[in-house]
Design a protein that fits this description.
This protein is α/β, with parallel strands linked by helices and about 220 residues long. The N and C termini lie close together (about 10 Å). Strands 3-2-1-4-5-6-7 form a seven-stranded mixed beta sheet, with helices on both faces. A two-stranded antiparallel ribbon has the order 8-9. The protein has helices spanning about 15-25, 45-50, 75-90, 130-140, 175-200; strands at about 5-10, 30-40, 55-60, 90-95, 110-115, 145-150, 160-170, 200-205, 210.
Length: about 220
């Protein structure tokens, strides 16, 4: 029987991905429960969503770690975040529109997921997030876009890919209409990746993530 895993969700904005994961968990569609929400911004609407669902939530303000005229201290910020994650003993860290670099300590390697609103390795990296991704897709005239769920590493949008779901790019698309179709696929892909993780069916081999067949319950008898 698949156990219910605990999630720590990192946000910076509206929390639509958080809302989707909470709904999927409550509906029994994904064996996961959001234990804690951590935001890089105090004004993130996702904090209100967390409060409405009775989920513990905190702010680790990015501005504290971005002194004027100096490089951002992502290591220090990530260490503060990890103290909170450790307190809740989360099984998986979910980046959900988190606009800062999360420097992953060894104890969380292989336990951090991210979703990107394009088909990696295209249209990614520093500065390409949210609607900026969809604007770049349309400017380049590509015919297919989509979303990618991947294990996060120490580089933006770089870790091994778990799931990709494509969408067509239409001739009359705007960044807004394309974003709507991509987000609809995100709402399917992220819960699916989390479910596979909870079931122990993801095996990382270098740059590849193998999705293992479901375990036969009879073998455990």
């Amino acid at each position: 029987m698949t156990r219910t895993i605990g999630l720590g969700v990192l946000i910076s904005g509206g929390g639509t991905t958080l809302e989707n994961l909470v709904a999927k968990g409550k509906a029994g569609e994904v064996p996961a429960e959001v234990k804690v929400v951590i935001s890089s911004r105090a004004d993130a609407y996702g904090l209100i969503r967390a409060k409405n669902h009775g989920i513990d939530h905190y702010v680790v303000p990015s501005r504290k770690y971005r002194p004027v005229g100096q490089p951002p201290d992502w290591v220090g910020m990530s260490a503060e975040i990890c103290k909170l994650l450790d307190r809740y003993e989360v099984d998986l860290v979910v980046l959900a529109g988190f606009m800062c670099q999360f420097v992953i300590p060894p104890r969380y390697e292989g336990r951090v997921m991210n979703i990107h609103p394009a088909l990696l390795p295209g249209f990614c990296g520093p500065g390409l997030y949210g609607h900026k991704v969809h604007e770049a897709v349309l400017e380049h005239g590509v015919k297919v876009s989509g979303c990618t769920v991947h294990f996060a590493d120490q580089r933006y949008d770089h870790g091994p890919i778990i799931i990709q779901r494509p969408v067509p790019v239409l001739d009359d698309d705007t960044p807004e209409t394309l974003a709507q179709r991509v987000f609809a696929e995100e709402c399917i892909a992220y819960p699916e990746a989390i479910r596979l993780f909870a079931e122990g069916r993801l095996k990382v081999e270098g740059r590849r993530v193998l999705i293992l067949a479901p375990q036969d319950p009879q073998k455990n008898i």
